[in-house]
Specification:
single chain, about 160 residues, mainly alpha, two-stranded antiparallel ribbon, 2 strands, about 35% helix, globular, binds zinc ion
C-alpha cells in the first residue's frame, strides 16, 4: 500500500488541490488522495511568504508543545518499527520526541502527532512510514484541522490575496 502511494507520489497527478479535496470528501477512505492532499509540496511555495504560517506548526517539538520528563517516558518504537524497544532508558538513550507522521510528509508538530523514541530508534526512523498502520492516517485527530488550514491557504492563493 505505501509502495503504491510512493509510486503515485512520484507521478503526482496534475490535479487541482480543491478538486482532489472534494473527491476525498466523497470517499474518505482514499488514503492516497489524502496523502497527496496533506503533502507540504502543496503549500511550500506559500509559507515562504512573510506572515504566512506553516499549517504544520514549527519544525521541532519543544517544551511549549510537549512537556515531558525525558528520563521517564519509554521509547514507543512499536508504533514505527513494530516491536517493543529492548533498550533501557539509560543516559545515552534519553528519549526524544519526533513526529509519528513525518513532518516532511505533512505531519504537524503537535502532541497527538508526537512519538517518544530513544536516541537509537530516533536515528533509525528517518521519516520511515512503512510500519505505520495504514488506517492510522485516516484516524489522526489532527487531520481535519490540518486539511482546513491547507484549504484556507489554497483559497487565499486562488483569490490572489498573497
Ligand atoms: Zn528505542
Amino acid at each position: 500500500m505505501w509502495e503504491n502511494y510512493i509510486k503515485q507520489l512520484n507521478n503526482l497527478p496534475v490535479e487541482n488541490w480543491e478538486n482532489l479535496y472534494n473527491k476525498f470528501n466523497k470517499n474518505k477512505n482514499d488514503l492516497v488522495s489524502l496523502m497527496i492532499l496533506i503533502h507540504p509540496e502543496n503549500y511550500n511555495h506559500l509559507i515562504k511568504i512573510p506572515g504566512i504560517s506553516d499549517p504544520r506548526g514549527n519544525r521541532y517539538f519543544d517544551n511549549t508543545v510537549f512537556s515531558i520528563d525525558r528520563n521517564q517516558n519509554k521509547c514507543d518504537s512499536i508504533k514505527i518499527f513494530g516491536y517493543i524497544c529492548p533498550l533501557k532508558n539509560s543516559d545515552e538513550n534519553k528519549i526524544n520526541i519526533d513526529h509519528l507522521w513525518p513532518f516532511s510528509l505533512g505531519g504537524p508538530t503537535e502532541v497527538s502527532n508526537g512519538i517518544f523514541l530513544c536516541k537509537i530508534h530516533n536515528n533509525f526512523k528517518h521519516n520511515d512510514i512503512h510500519n505505520i498502520d495504514e488506517n492510522l492516517l485516516l484516524n489522526f485527530t489532527w487531520l481535519e484541522e490540518l486539511l482546513s488550514k491547507i484549504k484556507n491557504l489554497k483559497n487565499f492563493e486562488k483569490q490572489g490575496l498573497f
